[in-house]
């Protein structure tokens, strides 16, 4: 009988201890345990593996993520879409998914003698929206976005919490543009990606540019032009990146972005892909300045990737101790603290709905002498983190102690 044994080797004890600390910290931050402890989500046997139930607290965080995502996209000129979860199998034949992606799709359903399938991707739906009318070159760029739920068959042994599931919501967007607009659109996507990721506390990235593989669709000229546009956009952005020669998809070059979490782990989230294939398969066109039919460029892009996976990364990045603006139970606890303060004759208000730095700035502008900051950690420990306009950070206090110190300060005519 064979038995597999895994081991690690280190040059010194310091490296070994750092590794053991990393393993222990990763275990402490495991989103599956935290998700259960904080009652954020579950995956239930009665429904099936890889199918996520968002509980009320998790749903609050998801709503905040979606709302942030939508506001930024609308501000940057995207139109929102909602499209069906199923389609006739013929659609997936046109797109090529039945030929190249069938093993990742769920079985077909017979509905009134026609075959339907759950969607593994949103792209064909957005193309159908584009095709509903004839477009002029003056219409470009056209940007559409959707938080679209997709379904992909995964072996049960590969399922892992929120990181590998069978049903998930992608933050999908597609840009239809002219060849000479590729660079500007890619640069716009890079700016949007940075804006969204910074909102959620991610500022360190690993970026890869993948170029034409040996087997590819599209002529050399358009590949060269698109690849140069991606390179130029990255250079203009000032991001360092690695070039993966020949690592692009058969249908176009792409940029992949991995975010770095609090433990230094890399997570694939954002991707930007130029596509020469689907516009050809679906025969999408526009009318140019000479009244001739031409084929537009299509750009696929996602920032968060899967909402489920991104939520799992967020949980582990913050170890469940979400910042105030993301915390699912902040307001209920804040209101309880405010009521207790008022019951003790202390004048108090609850401020919420903005990111913490802005709330602090607003309080300082209002000359508010004391601020009690509440996040997930404070809710769990039933405490407040106190900030004084005069003395700065005062640390974390139990509510009773906070009240007692305020009353003493008021009685003695002093400040905290």
UniProtKB/TrEMBL annotation:
Domain called Aminoacyl-transfer RNA synthetases class-II family profile: residue spans: 30-323
Alphabetical list of Pfam families matching this protein: HGTP_anticodon, tRNA-synt_2b
EC number from the UniProt entry: 6.1.1.3
Record PROSITE patterns: AA_TRNA_LIGASE_II
GO BP term (any one): threonyl-tRNA aminoacylation
InterPro entries xref list: aa-tRNA-synt_IIb, aa-tRNA-synth_II, aa-tRNA-synth_II/BPL/LPL, Anticodon-bd, Anticodon-bd_dom_sf, Thr-tRNA-ligase_IIa, ThrRS_anticodon, ThrRS_core
GO cellular component entries: chloroplast stroma
Keywords for the protein's UniProt record, in alphabetical order: Aminoacyl-tRNA synthetase, ATP-binding, Ligase, Metal-binding, Nucleotide-binding, Protein biosynthesis, Zinc
Class of the enzyme per the UniProt entry, highest EC level: ligase
Reactions catalysed: tRNA(Thr) + L-threonine + ATP = L-threonyl-tRNA(Thr) + AMP + diphosphate + H(+)
GO function terms (MF aspect): ATP binding; metal ion binding; threonine-tRNA ligase activity
NCBIfam families, sorted: thrS
Family, per entry: Belongs to the class-II aminoacyl-tRNA synthetase family.
Protein name (Swiss-Prot/TrEMBL): threonine--tRNA ligase
Lineage: Eukaryota, Viridiplantae, Streptophyta, Embryophyta, Tracheophyta
């Amino acid at each position: 009988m064979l038995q597999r044994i895994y081991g690690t080797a280190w040059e010194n004890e310091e490296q070994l201890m750092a590794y053991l600390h990393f393993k222990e910290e990763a275990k402490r931050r495991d989103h599956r345990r935290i998700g259960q402890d904080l009652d954020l989500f579950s995956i239930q046997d009665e429904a099936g593996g890889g199918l996520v139930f968002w509980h009320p607290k998790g749903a609050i965080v998801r709503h905040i993520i979606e709302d942030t995502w939508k506001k930024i996209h609308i501000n940057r000129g995207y139109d929102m879409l909602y499209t069906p979860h199923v389609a006739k199998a013929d659609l997936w034949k046109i797109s090529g998914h039945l030929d190249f992606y069938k093993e990742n799709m769920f079985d077909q359903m017979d509905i009134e003698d026609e075959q339907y399938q759950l969607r593994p991707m949103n792209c064909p739906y957005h193309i159908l929206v584009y095709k509903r009318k004839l477009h002029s070159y003056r219409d470009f760029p056209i940007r559409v976005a959707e938080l679209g739920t997709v379904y992909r068959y995964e072996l049960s042994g590969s399922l892992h919490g929120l990181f590998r599931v069978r049903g998930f919501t992608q933050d999908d967007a597609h840009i239809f543009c002219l060849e000479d607009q590729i660079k500007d659109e890619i640069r716009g996507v890079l700016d949007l990606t940075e804006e969204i990721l910074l909102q959620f506390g991610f500022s360190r990235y690993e970026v890869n540019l993948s170029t034409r593989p040996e087997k590819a669709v599209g002529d050399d000229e358009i590949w060269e032009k698109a690849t140069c546009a991606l390179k130029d956009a990255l250079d203009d952005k000032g991001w360092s990146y690695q070039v993966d020669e020949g690592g692009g998809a058969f249908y176009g070059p792409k940029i992949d972005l991995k975010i770095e979490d609090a433990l230094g782990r890399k997570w694939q989230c954002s991707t930007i892909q130029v596509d020469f294939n689907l516009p050809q398969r679906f025969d999408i066109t526009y009318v140019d300045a000479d009244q001739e039919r031409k084929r537009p460029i299509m750009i696929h892009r996602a920032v968060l990737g899967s909402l489920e996976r991104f939520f799992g990364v967020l949980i582990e990045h913050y170890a469940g101790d979400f910042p105030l603006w993301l915390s699912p139970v902040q307001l209920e606890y804040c209101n309880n603290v405010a009521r207790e303060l008022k019951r003790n004759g202390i004048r108090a208000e609850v401020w919420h709905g903005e990111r913490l730095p802005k709330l602090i700035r607003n309080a300082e502008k209002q000359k508010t002498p004391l601020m009690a900051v509440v996040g997930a950690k404070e809710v769990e420990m039933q405490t407040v983190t106190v900030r004084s306009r005069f003395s700065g950070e005062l640390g974390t206090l139990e509510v009773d102690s906070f009240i007692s110190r305020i009353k003493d300060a008021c009685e003695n005519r002093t400040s905290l």
